[in-house]
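Duplicate of #3305? Posting structure anyway:
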């Protein structure tokens, strides 16, 4: 559709609230937006280019068509917009990761001896829930910290069913558990401890400290010195938590501060969580954005963030005004099922909080941009050493893995601007290996399949890399060159050559030229990291593919080699054949001397 045809369609749009969906030539939705008045909003995209920012100009250049959905109200449009973004994941919208989890801590207070567990979301089952937490690790750490302070059980035993079945565990002997397994702790006594834990999870540490102090003094006055000492120790443990409040942060349910900062090459949204008047935690999300509208970014972020999180604090402070502030506030209130205050402070203590969030966002950008600059310099070194015509922004590495010549697989890992891009990793089952182990044939099959998929227009294998990196020496990289030549491609390729310590010492070109990298730390680290990653990915796939076959491998026959040592050997050497060819000294770098000798002797005798 031409630009004039699009403008004509815009002129016929209704002056009503709704959602618009921009599409490219293939019909794919590339942007979803919401409008109070559809005609006014959509017409903004078709102004003279000089009036648009860089991101909008790029979006408009790909618009070939658009659809609209009329709604009854601006709020309904906002809810629909969020739903459409989640459904289509448009390229030009601000997108948050869907797999970001915000778990809760669950407590069934009806049980005789209640236990804390981590769950994905709260249920309507009468249990107590605390959260959400930034992740499962943080939630479990909170449970462990409070349990240790109050001597709560952390084992999986269920009481009173398991009382007396086994001896008390090590935690009891270390003074970290009150040991209800002994039968010496009644349900009432344990519930009293649980109530104290609830106070901590809800941020009432001061109240608990006061109660413990009073009980300790009472015990001392009644000459119950043993009980007083126990209460004193518990009080000290609770007071110690005050210096680790970020660990035991509960439901960040009082105040969130969200700030947006634009850097030179990327932007950052920082969220500070406050509870009980104290800063509890920080989260941040980085975007590769330039010339972004803070109002648009903050509005999109807030809607998606709290929809994923499933919980909203009573107050949310923003660093910038957003256009649909009332509608967004109503949307957040619908998630929270109560009134949520959405504000943009201009002065006072609240403004101090948004400035602090901005400062955190700015520091995160600076840290990432410095890291990016270091990676960029490493790529420049690679370009200079090898003589590549262009900066190698995209590198692909390949490796073959097998167990004793069986279950041969191939792996492809991708590094973009010096960072792994795991969504672009690919795995290959090698068919030609059924005729016997042949690393060269296996490499040829994998590379041929990879390039053919690109030639056939498979988006999952596009684009081609700036250079192919092959785990192996001259023979392997010549196989790669033959494959590329057969497709008429001129992409550079290099073999990653190891030294006698299995570290990458050089890159080798198909003509036999070697480029030393061990004397250049940044380059040595980059290539070493890539080689380790492709190696890891190949072995990981091989294990999944082989399943139980791994346990029946040759290594299991060697005395002194168990699961851990077998995994260490395979992780380091890559295959049983490489282990077979290793010297005793090389094996001793991975295993204790006696185990290394056993492995060497086994293969030596076998030979």
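Output from current build:
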């Amino acid at each position: 559709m031409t630009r004039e045809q699009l403008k004509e369609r815009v002129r016929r749009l209704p002056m009503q609230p709704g959602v618009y969906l921009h599409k490219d030539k293939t019909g794919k939705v590339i942007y979803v937006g919401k409008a109070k008045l559809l005609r006014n909003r959509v017409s903004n995209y078709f102004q003279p280019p000089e009036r648009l920012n860089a991101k909008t100009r790029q979006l408009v250049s790909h618009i070939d068509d658009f659809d609209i959905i009329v709604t009854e109200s601006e709020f309904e449009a906002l809810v629909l917009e969020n739903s459409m973004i989640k459904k289509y994941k448009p390229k030009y919208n601000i997108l948050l990761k869907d797999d970001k989890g915000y778990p809760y801590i669950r407590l069934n207070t009806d049980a005789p001896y209640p236990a804390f567990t981590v769950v994905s979301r709260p249920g309507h089952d009468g249990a107590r829930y605390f959260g959400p937490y930034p992740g499962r690790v943080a939630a479990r750490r909170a449970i462990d910290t409070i349990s240790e302070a109050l001597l709560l059980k952390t084992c999986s035993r269920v009481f009173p069913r398991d009382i007396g079945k086994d001896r008390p565990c090590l935690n009891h002997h270390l003074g970290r558990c009150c040991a209800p397994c002994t039968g010496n702790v009644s349900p009432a006594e344990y519930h009293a401890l649980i109530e104290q834990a609830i106070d901590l999870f809800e941020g009432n540490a001061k109240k608990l400290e006061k109660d413990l102090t009073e009980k300790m003094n009472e015990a001392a006055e009644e000459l119950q010195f043993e009980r007083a000492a126990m209460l004193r120790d518990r009080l000290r443990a609770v007071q110690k938590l005050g210096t680790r409040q970020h660990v035991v942060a509960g439901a960040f349910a009082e105040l969130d501060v969200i700030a947006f900062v634009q850097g030179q090459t990327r932007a950052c949204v920082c969220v500070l969580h406050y509870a009980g008047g104290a800063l509890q935690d920080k989260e941040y999300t980085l975007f590769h954005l330039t010339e972004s509208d803070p109002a648009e970014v903050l509005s999109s972020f807030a809607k998606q963030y709290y929809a994923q999180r499933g919980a909203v604090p009573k107050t949310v402070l923003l660093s910038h005004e957003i256009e649909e502030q009332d509608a967004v506030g109503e949307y957040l209130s619908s998630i929270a099922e109560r009134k949520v205050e959405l504000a943009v402070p201009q002065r006072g203590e609240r403004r101090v909080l948004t400035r602090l969030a901005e400062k955190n966002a700015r520091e995160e950008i600076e840290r990432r941009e410095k890291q990016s600059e270091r990676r960029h310099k490493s790529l420049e070194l690679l370009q200079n050493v090898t003589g590549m015509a262009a900066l190698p922004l995209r590198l692909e590495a390949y490796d073959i893995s097998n167990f004793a010549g069986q279950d041969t697989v191939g792996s492809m890992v991708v590094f973009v601007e010096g960072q792994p891009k795991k969504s672009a990793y690919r795995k290959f089952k090698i068919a030609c290996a059924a005729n016997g182990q042949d690393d060269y044939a296996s490499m040829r099959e994998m590379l041929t399949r990879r390039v053919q998929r690109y030639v056939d227009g498979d988006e999952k294998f596009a684009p081609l890399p700036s250079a192919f990196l092959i785990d192996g020496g001259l023979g392997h990289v010549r196989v790669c060159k033959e494959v590329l030549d057969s497709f008429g491609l001129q992409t550079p390729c290099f073999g990653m050559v190891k030294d006698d310590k299995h570290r990458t010492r050089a890159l080798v070109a198909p003509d036999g030229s070697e480029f030393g990298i061990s004397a250049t730390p940044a380059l040595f680290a980059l290539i070493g990291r890539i080689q380790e990653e492709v190696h890891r990915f190949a072995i990981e796939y091989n294990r999944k593919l082989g399943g139980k076959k791994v346990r029946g491998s040759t290594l299991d026959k060697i005395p002194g080699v168990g699961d851990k040592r077998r995994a260490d050997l395979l992780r380091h050497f890559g295959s049983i054949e490489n282990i077979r060819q290793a010297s005793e000294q090389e094996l001793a770098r991975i295993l204790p001397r006696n185990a290394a000798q056993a492995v060497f002797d086994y293969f030596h005798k076998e030979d």
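Confirmed duplicate; merging threads. The longest strand covers residues 406-416. Residues 348-386 form the longest helix (39 residues).
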